[in-house]
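Per reviewer request, we include the raw input and output of the structure prediction for the construct analysed in the revised manuscript.
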Amino acid sequence: MRLHAANAAWRLPSDADIMSPLWENIMKAILNLVKDEQGGEVLEYALIAGLIVVAAIAVIGSVGGKVLARWNSLNSSM
């Protein structure tokens, strides 16, 4: 609580008193991330890994039906 100068009474801090430093810290962090040039390679590797995973899922999805049909055929012939 702070002592309000106008009426010399105690008052609770307002939302603006609390949020202003928070927003300042958030904006500083965002600006630092924008200015930072490190980590670009990590992003590129993550994108490549993501593309590999998507391709693997597509291949498994397209081949999975054929494998399941073959498996059921072998199972029924036994």
